[in-house]
Specification:
The chain is built from ten helices and ten strands. The strands form two sheets. Strands 3-4-5-6-7-8-9-10 form an eight-stranded parallel β-sheet. Belongs to the aldo/keto reductase family. This is Aldo/keto reductase.
Length: 281
């Protein structure tokens, strides 16, 4: 059971990833971004999750340097965007991400979405990046079991992590079971359903019981279900609050009750229905 924000999960290749990180989705204001990243590192976070499409890799790299925390102590994730997929284009996009971050390597490189017809070739590029030691681990985002099976069938290395929309209204039990069976860590994006779960009666009841915010209850559920989580915030106080979930424990019954809130309800895109046009690209 995780007792600290710096506690880790161990990926299939032995690389350790913190149980919680900071997401910086759409955070393009340089001042806000720097505040969020430096505050997170000050409060003990050691994982920062960005992506090329967020257009803030450069700012993340600058903020990490400014924090004074050694690079080797920070787990940095970025992702290849949909329009950059394909073998050669992915290799080029990765070089561009490293240049923007001003780093020699990343800790985790992900395929952002399973673009039809290209994600297998994209994965082969990630294998090359991994074998060259420029990414300590590689994985995917928003992949369903059949997408993962395509990679298993065609490639040499299994994804080590699958970052997906995961919250009590989208607990994804089948996907979670599949990933666990193949030693793929599940990681939660939008773990708070963009604030749309804060009036859920069960969450409010547990919030009152433990003297915690609804967000803290949900993030604690993430950790206790064995999922890595990357809540986004630009507020220094909210960053601190989100990370303060390691001094209380939900009961097994409460974890099960929260999981039972699952409605298969998304706030993001359906991975089985995405195309380049889906994202306005």
């Amino acid at each position: 059971m995780a007792k600290s924000i710096q506690d880790v999960y161990t990926l299939a290749n032995g690389v350790e990833i913190p149980v919680m990180g900071l997401g910086v989705y759409k955070n393009v204001d340089e001042t806000e971004l720097e505040t969020a990243v430096t505050s997170a590192l000050e409060f003990g976070y050691r994982h920062i999750d960005t992506a090329k499409v967020y257009k803030n890799e450069k700012g993340v790299g600058k903020a990490i340097k400014k924090s004074g925390v050694p690079r080797e102590d920070i787990f940095v994730t970025t992702k290849v965007w949909n329009t950059d997929q394909g073998y050669e284009k992915t290799l080029k996009a990765f070089d561009e991400s490293l240049e923007a971050l001003d780093m020699d390597y990343v800790d985790l490189y992900l395929i952002h979405w399973p673009m039809p017809g290209t994600y297998v070739e994209t994965w082969k590029a990630l294998e090359k990046i991994y074998e060259e030691g420029r990414a300590r681990a590689i994985g995917v985002s928003n992949f369903n079991p059949h997408h993962l099976q395509d990679i298993f069938n065609e490639c040499d290395i299994k994804p080590m992590l699958n970052q997906v929309e995961y919250h009590p209204h989208l607990a994804q039990p089948e996907l979670k079971k599949f990933c666990e069976a193949h030693d793929i860590l599940l990681e939660a994006w939008s773990p708070l359903k963009r604030g749309r779960m804060f009036d859920e009666p069960l969450i409010l009841s547990l919030s009152e019981k433990y003297g915690r915010t609804p967000a803290q209850i949900i993030l604690r559920w993430d950790v206790q279900t064995g999922v890595s989580t990357i809540p986004k915030s630009v507020s220094r106080d909210r960053v601190r609050e989100n990370g303060s979930i390691f001094d209380f424990t939900l009961t097994e019954e409460e974890v099960g009750e929260i999981t039972a809130l699952n409605r298969h309800e998304r706030v993001g895109k359906d991975p089985d229905k995405v195309t380049l046009e889906t994202f306005g690209d």
